[in-house]
Amino acid sequence: MERLRKSPAWTELEKLAPLVKRHHMRDMFNREPSRAKKYTLDAVGITLDYSKNRVTEDVLSALFDLANQRGLKQKISDMFGGEAINTTEQRAVLHTALRNFSGQPVHLDGEDIMPEVHATLERMKRFTQSIHNKEHTGYTGKAIDTVVSIGIGGSFLGPKIVTESLKPYWRGGLKVHFVANVDGCHIQDVLSQTNPETTLFVMSSKSFSTQETLQNTLSAKDWFLKQGPSQADIAKHFVAVSTNVKAAVEFGMSKDNVFPMGHWVGGRYSLWSAIGLPISLTIGFDHFKALLQGAYEMDEHFKAAPFEKNMPVILAMLGIWYRNFMGAQSHALLPYYHYLRGFPAYVQQLDMESNGKSTTLDGRTVDYGTGPIIWGSEGTNGQHSFYQLIHQSNMPIPVDFMFPLKVPNQNETHHNMLASNCFGQAQALMQGKSFEECLDDLQGSELPEAEKSNLAAHKTMPGNHPSNMLLFEQLDPKTLGALIAMYEHKVLVQGCVWGLNSFDQWGVELGKVLGNDVYDMIEGEMSLDGVDESTAQLIKRFVKTT
Ligand code: F6P
């Protein structure tokens, strides 16, 4: 593949960046009275206003040229077509098949995988219904009223964040807990709140080899058996989701209680698979299906819309502009909706585990920036904390605001205040406040001129900070599905431009391997010979204390 920095569009963008840096967005809005209208787009219940970005028509056009020159159309078609685009693991990337409502087959190695997808969905539906209509009960015949979902990474964040975001859609009478961390405090804390007679444990692990998940499940099983039930009762209270059905059965799960998933689904893209079982249990299967429907419609938009009207492509290319040409190293997500508060953490794994890499598909080290740091938290809390840095530091930080126009059980005063904060912050970031304006405000004060000038300098807000505004009519399951799929595709587009494999995660492996060795050293089953002095010292101190 041609080197990214040698592509004509990249060279053009390098020329445009210093020109754009000279302009303030305030002037752009003054010059273009219909800028907001021009740069606003609707798709699948989401409105994107990207007018508050430091871009001109020339910049956008060069960005779309860059996407073309990097073979984005082919990449999209390869992903949906089941090509093994995860090259280091020789795997297809087909999470989109899990929400394929087109009625068309999806072929993998010559075989249609849709029957397998439908069969698993059908099992999820039946299982969900059997819990809800109390056909499937606990070992004493009582209805299940608590779900404890055990999994980590993609087997945790997807189900947790979706469930949390859709709280207004929860079925009454069912509580859900998510346990990920191997820190025993968490599982103990959850177990102390649950009744073994009425609790269902869902163990989610694509590989069925993740230390945290295996240990938390063992601890849960141990606790369960100590409460009185027999070994045979485990089948009523423990189910698993995995690609590795054999390992799950060997672990003690009944085969009927293992929900399969395909190896062609990446961990951080897996909430659409049986990994979504806790979602279906909490909000009901019909709502889960609506979530899939929203994602499907976003897939169709992504495949069909020209790049200039394509929401994931626009967001991705704006991100490239800031990361590679305007000096940004991070990107903040700012949901103004309490239930969506976990969304930054979800996109953090999705984006950073996918594009936090510096080796290209053909094995070269990149000479340009790749995946940014993703962070953020819910509005308005962030306003009273880190927004100061976004407004007045010298680090450029592009942000995505998110706001549902309507919320369930809306309290008008609260919602109006929330809206005014969200829109007001986007406005303040864009327009800022000049030194002259600040000085003007101080004209009536008694301060000496030098102090006025000093104070005005401190109060000056440069503005010109870019933001996208994402509005939802309301954040129902369908819109949430579309929103998540939109960020998934943004990641694909950026990975394509940067020439990365967005679907492996070798970076997490070494830590896992060394962690296992350290565990053996702590347990006294491995010698400390050859271990660096600092690590050896830590292990000895720990062993001595415990
Ligand atoms: O942390 C690496 C990772 O492989 C993630 O990509 C994945 O979501 C997580 O571990 C959990 O893996 P599993 O579902 O196989 O337990």
Overview of the structural elements:
This protein has three domains: 4-69 and 305-431 and 466-498, Rossmann fold, CATH 3.40.50; 107-285, Glucose-6-phosphate isomerase like protein, domain 1 (Rossmann fold, 3-Layer(aba) Sandwich), CATH 3.40.50; 506-545. The chain has 546 residues and is α/β, with parallel strands linked by helices. It has a six-stranded mixed β-sheet, with helices on both faces. The protein is globular, with a radius of gyration of 26 Å. The termini are far apart. The model has no long low-confidence stretch (mean pLDDT 97). The protein contains 22 helices and 13 strands. Residues 152-155, 205-207, 210, 213, 267-268, 353, 505, 508 line the site of 6-O-phosphono-beta-D-fructofuranose.
Tags for this entry?
single chain; alpha/beta; Rossmann fold; 3 domains; globular; binds 6-O-phosphono-beta-D-fructofuranose
